[in-house]
Amino acid sequence: MSVQLRDEVDTGIGGGGVANGAGPLLLAGDIGGTKTVLALVAPDGAVVSEATFASRDHAEFDEIVLAFRRRFPAVVERVCLSVAGPVIDGRAEITNLPWVLDEERLAASLSVGSVHLMNDLQATAYALATLRPEQLHPLHRAQAEPGGTRAVVAVGTGLGEAALIAGERGELALPSEGGHTDFAPRGAVQRGLLAWLQHEYEHVSYERVCSGHGIPNIYRYLRERGGTPEPAWLSAAFAATDDPTPVIAAAGLRGGGDGCPVCRRTLSVFAAILGAEAGNLALRTLATGGVFVGGGIPPRLRPVLLGRAFREGYLRKGVMSDLVARIPVHLILEPRAAVLGAARYAAARG
Q1: pLDDT of residue 15 exceeding 50
Q2: Could you tell me if 348 and 342 are in contact, meaning their C-beta atoms sit under 8 angstroms apart?
Q3: CB distance 33 to 96 below 8 Å
Q4: What's the number of CA atoms in the CB half-sphere (13 Å) around residue 126?
């Protein structure tokens, strides 16, 4: 369904209170494998309250939304949630979480008029028109075509993709599960990575190598391939956490002798793979309006993504290299893009 979208969503996040006299509010949210963000949105599009929850600390989504509503009591008449995974017939099984969400059941349990579930990348795509220049950073400079299709690839716990197309009745965001397509390696290191992972997984997708789950896979492969002993301080850091990805990222971003060469190489390989898939998405969707890289991980790795590995991965497309070179790439710095997109979509539906 094509929806006429307005550009009135206020991307500023308010404090802890609920606007007085605002009337019934929209509850918008972004449900991911690592965290869930919920926000109350006023009829004028302003976000008046928000909170973030660790998803895995809760057995089901209902626990989170009830805790949020206790913290921020307000009259809510509609709910629009972006979810990490496909939404089919109003039902979603959350990727990387044992949660199942159903629109009708949620509407009944929350006592609201309606609940709408949408793919998180679809929601992020709807947010693109609301993002200000300071909420973006160029990774590849080129001139976007006005009204051209825009594509989004987001790296978090998993890997998501979507496209935003313009039509006579407004913009339409097309969800996908492109992150689960077959990983196509480039060069000896990536070919070795694929062969190594095929011993462990029946299917090696881009998400296996380009996500919060994928970065540790790259690290383990490079460590084993090089035979380099792991520093004691790094082993201790891994032992102290359930999520090795931030440890690898921090060690890879450190300069000089304070960092970890294998971690630095891991981030370079990751950037090359992400660049290649961003270029693949540009070609699949003919995204002349630009490619946008989002999710929680890329902004933290901005120095790496501004380097040679990402750009070469993006541009090397054989006979289509010239076409891809004319398509700009932007890094999304706004962490709440999916929430804002869900709110914008719901406001447009009325």
Answers
A1: no
A2: no
A3: yes
A4: 33
Copy the structure tokens of residue 172.
């339409």
Element (H, E) at 154: strand 150-155
- Domain 10-127+335-349 classification at class level: alpha beta
Judge whether residue 145 has pLDDT over 50: yes
18: Cβ–Cβ under 8 A, 6 or more apart, which residues? 25, 40, 48, 49, 72, 73, 74
Distances in whole angstroms, Cα of residue 164 to Cα of each of 121, 123, 256, 293, 308: 10, 10, 42, 14, 28
Bridge-based pairing state of the strands 114-119 and 76-83: parallel
Question: Percent of the chain having pLDDT more than 90?
Answer: 72
* Domain residue limits, the chain: 10-127+335-349, 179-332
> Pairing mode, if any, of strands 46-54 and 10-13?
parallel
Average confidence (pLDDT) over 56-79: 90
Q: Tokens 């000089």 label which residue?
A: 256
Domain 179-332 carries which CATH code? 3.40.367.20
Alpha carbon distance 285, 296 (integer Å): 23
**What's the whole-number mean pLDDT along residues 312-327?**
97
